[in-house]
UniProtKB/TrEMBL annotation:
This is Oxalyl-CoA decarboxylase. Belongs to the TPP enzyme family. GO terms for molecular function: magnesium ion binding; oxalyl-CoA decarboxylase activity; thiamine pyrophosphate binding. Its cofactor is thiamine diphosphate. Residues 417-555 form the Thiamine pyrophosphate enzyme TPP-binding domain. It comes from the Bacteria. Residues 214-345 form the Thiamine pyrophosphate enzyme central domain.
Amino acid sequence: MAEAGINDARNGSAQDEQATTDGFHLVIDALKLNDIDTIFGLVGIPITDLARLAQAQGMRFIGFRHEQNAGNAAAVAGYMTKKPGICLTVSAPGFLNGLTALANATTNCFPMILISGSSEREIVDLQQGDYEEMDQLNAAKPYAKAAYRVLHAEDIGIGVARAIRAALSGRPGGVYLDLPAKLLAQTIDAAKGRESLVKVVDAAPRQIPAPDAVKRALDVIRNAKRPLILLGKGAAYAQADAQIRELVEKSGVPYLPMSMAKGLLPDTHAQSASAARSYVLAEADAVVLIGARLNWLLAHGKGKTWGAPVSKRFVQIDIAPTEIDSNVAIEAPLIGDIGSCVEALVAGLGDEFPQPDADWLDAIAQRKNANLAKMAATLDKNPSPMNFHSALRAIRDVLKTRPDINVVNEGANTLDYARSIIDMAQPRKRFDSGTWGIMGIGMGFAIGAAVTSGTQVVAIEGDSAFGFSGMELETICRYNLPVCTIVFNNNGVYRGTDVNPTGGADVAPTVFVKGARYDRMIEAFGGIGHHVTTPEELTQALLEAIASGQPTLINAVIDETAGTESGRLTNLNPQSAAMKK
Ligand code: ADP
């Protein structure tokens, strides 16, 4: 009766008219029952018919050229919607390709479910050499928040429900769901199948912080002279925008957004301390962390960055209790969902919001203004060839007029510079290399953001970063998505000027083909390519792309000597220092 799935996939007939149903239908029914309407994936044995059926039953199936990109699209969809993004892959190699994205989703606390078909259990477990044989469940476990396998059709409803709840509840993350080929073909009585489905109720329950924990946090905040609020992407994910704004604005406390929290409040907000980042991190006496981890992106909360040897008083709001004290002692942990925790702080402060010392605010304002003036002078320059700054000025000026546009950003220097130069004015509009600082999320995130929002995406890509997912230009063109990809082309990783010290025929490890025409890649698929060498041409091309909403790639040629090794992570690259000796 595997045929049932296949035939229905082709003619889209309703299963209700049948006496039996099968694994194919039950998977789709279970997803639809839980309001999941899109699958990102790549077809092949044994899940092609599952994708066909999904489409026939009214779901959107977005087919990719590589599973990692499909997984990244699913992850970003999960982050934007607070519903798990679904990635569907074939067995073994397809699963492993998707696993990178699943691990990245888990690391970033994005809710996602990787569903992979798998080969026959009996053969896999005896290692008898099946087509694409692999023990996928166990391979997934270390990289996922949870991993489940369903063996019986009547358990599909429960399996999907468990996967959804695991992805969304508490700290969100990536979940693996293993569906053996045999399961998809299993048939059961249709009525029994319907009854086996589960609609998940309250998948991410509110978690109200304990009153004594709120009191402890309020004590720290009330006694601070130089307070700082630090907003992470957990705060953006939580969609507690109004509560966060109220806390920030009523308290008058300066705040710093982590990169994906940019836009939670507009970057032009008077209380944003982004342009005085080093100063506020070093000098604040109390820091309220809201959905941000003290990992490498925040120098682990210690050392010179944080003004050592003077230690800070920390309040940390997080849904995961084990995050507390992960790097430094947290005086006031506030465990709960961000909306409830921030609400409790606002209520606790009542009408007596203590205002920070005027000296503190003045000192921040001075530094901020000085740094902004310095940056403005750098951005005003018009070097030839164009460099990161003059190209980003052009992009910034266009994006300023369209705060609704989604921005994807990856690269080394391209990421570092764009993060500080491109202001965001709306929440959850910026998607980047995230917690791992990885390359390769570009086209997957861009497609995920375009499909989920239905609105324009601008992907600002280093030429090296773009290479990891560039083939998805075909996907962008196939679905006619409003994605404009801007490749910062400086002929190499970091820059294009390294030479092979032996004088041999091979180019240096960091060098690409000189003068590559990335714009012609998209033309091969019917998209629009632009080749630009000046900020004016870049502005024009970007305006055209946005006005048309057509798939576009702008090959932005920048100075090949521009760019530093690993961008701002040069310190994590010890070999390069050693080799220069
Ligand atoms: P950033 O990289 O922007 O600093 P992180 O990814 O390091 O942000 O931190 C996000 C944090 O937010 C995680 O520790 C996660 O547990 C937490 N988090 C995610 N969603 C919620 C939520 N709804 N309520 C509370 N905390 C959350």
